[in-house]
Protein 1
Amino acid sequence: MDHIANHPATADMQASDAAHHLHPFTDTAALNEKGARIITSANGVMLRDSEGNEILDGMAGLWCVNIGYGRNELADVASRQMRELPYYNTFFQTSHPAVIALAEKIASLTPGDLNRTFFSCGGSDANDTNIRLVRHYWASLGKPNKTHIIARKNGYHGSAVGSASLGGMEAMHAQGGLPIPGISHIAQPYWYAEGGELSPEDFGLQAAQALEAEIERLGEDNVAAFIAEPVQGAGGVIVPPSTYWPEIQRICDAHEILLIADEVITGFGRTGAWFGSETYGIKPDIMTIAKGLSSGYQPIGGSVLSEKLAAVFAEKGGEFNHGYTYSGHPVAAAVALENLRILDEENIVSTVAKDTGPYLAKRWAELGEHPLVGETRSSGLMAAIELTPDAAARAPFAESGSVGPICRDHCVDNHLVMRHVGDKMIIAPPLVITKPEIDTLIERAFKALDLTLKDATAQGLMKSGSR
Ligand code: PXG
């Protein structure tokens, strides 16, 4: 593996990082005591840290490096684009070849008539754009009261003020007075934890019908849109029961509510189709995209609009007073286009659908035999396991959130990045992961589970709590 070896000593970099860098979603005091793990290079599905350890990246960075690390084609395209046109904007009646080609390519890949993209730098700002888009859409149609947006508890839509308000993360709302007004949250389709005695199918219907109840409470003349992830990612890879999405679609259609599918994680092959909307039979009016759009090689995202919306913006909307300096950035656009070419020409999405996705599903299910595991689930190449002290009862730990971090630490010590969300363990590896690499991932996960069970037992954590 090519790697940069001439970096300062790890301890020096850690000290400098601790002194000058404020990390996202991080307890700074705890990090500074321990020191950050410093990743210096990567290739395929493997990371290398500053101590020379090679670690299997079960999270594709942050769910984004779909084509894997080390694709020089993207570096070459970036270099060429920087020499030719490093920056120009897409405001004020200008455009450039890279963004034009990318917008056309996205239109060719997205389902139905999702044909027009407003570009952002990532998912958070794309979802902030969506708030303004849907409100401007309804106002342009003479319905200025249709402003309210319904989202879901434990959904994740980003970290800016608007997108964090769309998200349903209580810990985020607790800091800084969120959510902003005009947004409310309904129950999530999380059968394992919230389904009780209901079958997954009955529970899926019940969870979807919470949307209809909320629309009726607010009055449909006041509701602009419903936003949700096809499969919740950051919330813990929550795969909805099969009954959920058809009922959500029926309710949105019946009440004239725009449906926003946040495909930031599920887009670009993650679930074994180009978009999660295809896997789950969703017909969105707007799709949020980011992450896999460029496989994380450049920061870029967007909101893809159906013809119904695009037509209103093209005909009645007047000026849309909104945009980012880097909307459709040429280097990011050129890199994203090259990434989509690779995903397309190398049949990476169909390999997930036909080969590695089913293989992961089979091998991942084997983890369910471990005494610490209450459920396994997956969709394409995203998967979760529920850790539990009592699998038969689907019981949470009495000390909620105490065992997941232990398991995460054992994973990393055994050279596997697997993330914990409370006491759920989740993976979303690069889409180019091979079957032997999946075998390695499973082997390391089993070992981490064994060590976690030993620690949790020794620390007296194997006690059931209540939901
Ligand atoms: N929507 C969804 C569905 C996401 O998963 C965003 C929007 C925001 O995108 P940006 O590009 O602004 O980050 C996301 C991001 C995690 C984790 O630990 C997940 C995300 C970001 C950071 C960490 O699971 N998702």
Note: The radius of gyration is 22 Å.
Protein 2
Amino acid sequence: MSTFEYAPAPESRSIVDIAPSYGLFVNGEFVDGHGHSFKSISPSTEEVLAEIAEADETDVDLAVRAARRAHSRVWGRMPGKERAKYLFRIARIIQERGRELAVLESIDNGKPIKETRDVDVPIAAAHFFYYAGWADKLEYSGYGTESVGVAGQVIPWNFPLLMLSWKIAPALACGNTVVLKPAETTPLTALLFAEICQQADLPPGVVNIITGAGETGRALVSHPDVDKVAFTGSTEVGRSIARSVAGTSKRVTLELGGKAANIVFDDAPVDQAVEGIVNGIFFNQGHVCCAGSRLLVQESVADDVLDRLKRRMSTLRVGDPLDKNTDVGAINSAEQLAKIRELSAIGEDEGAERWAAPCELPEHGFWFPPTLFTGVTQAHRIAREEIFGPVLSVLTFRTPSEAIEKANNTPYGLSAGVWTDKGSRILKMAGALRAGVVWANTFNKFDPTSPFGGYKESGYGREGGRHGLAGYLKGEARR
Ligand code: NAD
């Protein structure tokens, strides 16, 4: 195995100013909550970063009321071209404060700085730029021009700032006001975003950020004065939200889990495919809903692909998220690490063969080495369940129809990847795969102009692109 030395190149954390404690952002200001508080911890060091307010039902109610007032008095009445100016301003401030946001996200989430710097923050800004452009052109959207009202939005911890931008940018562009709850393990960039809203002079109450865990999220989505619920997270919680809003007039979009197949045919450029497999499953430690967590490789090239894949995995640099060399950072929480360990142990018990990249893991924090399982069958739990970590399950196939059948044999339907030299095969596969996004000869590419979302247990509704406006406008869809 090849190993090599490199000089650490840590990004300075002096650009971020983390306060010892944070309140809730309601009606344009930071206020004390009525509930308890909890700690946000850096997953790479286990250092306590800050004490965070936990919003209770009273706080949720105050935030929803502030959003309602702002919608009926200001934001819902403001001409689109005026709303656009605020969205453009927010986008520019995200760019200007990009380094600060990137460092803070890496500290709070554990993901490598090269990802927060080059992916999360630029795409978050791009979402605000893109939807700013829609704000005065809604008559061309096909979904009408009238806003829905107050949106209650709940997001997960894997892309905290990015998921916030996916939720808030289209909502605001359409004239809605929002109450957003970030995940309990990653609240800090959402709280910095609240400061950005103040800096942009956004009218009070248009964006409200309430922190807390599942109970706070539950209180928000079941609040009677919320008109639209937008949730990204696990399928299990998504189901409970769908049940809680059933029978109400609330609109709902759910972006849930995935178990994507990354399919490599024998005519694929192998080194490129190996990079795509690595990007598909080890990007963001595999904490990605659309991660290519099932590798389907054509039997005739399986040995070659696996040899090269193991060689490449052995060069992945696992460690300090703030080091600019780092490829794979920390697992987001002790709970998530326990889940990854449990499912991996189950994989071995079921008879799959486990191989982990040789790497030294830091002493403190939550870490898991890049891992792959071979000898996996369709019946194995590691082939069916979302592990949501840096763990790849490898299956083989002989014919394109077998690849399609295996790829679609999942309760999820969020994404898939196809690696082949033949354009005609790409088109055939894209038509046959039941997944919201199919990447060809690439993986994990995101663009604000492109709709994203799933089938089956991966949820419903689309975020991004023109389709992402649908949930936030009252008009009936015109295709
Ligand atoms: P999770 O469902 O546990 O939590 C997501 C959010 O929901 C958190 O903010 C949490 O506090 C909140 N929550 C928990 N219980 C709730 C309840 N009863 N009512 C309302 N809110 C509640 O998910 P997670 O572990 O934070 O995130 C990982 C999951 O998110 C994975 O399954 C992943 O696939 C999914 N995800 C999907 C997408 C997508 O676009 N489809 C994107 C990112 C993540």
Note: Residues 113-134 form the longest helix (22 residues).
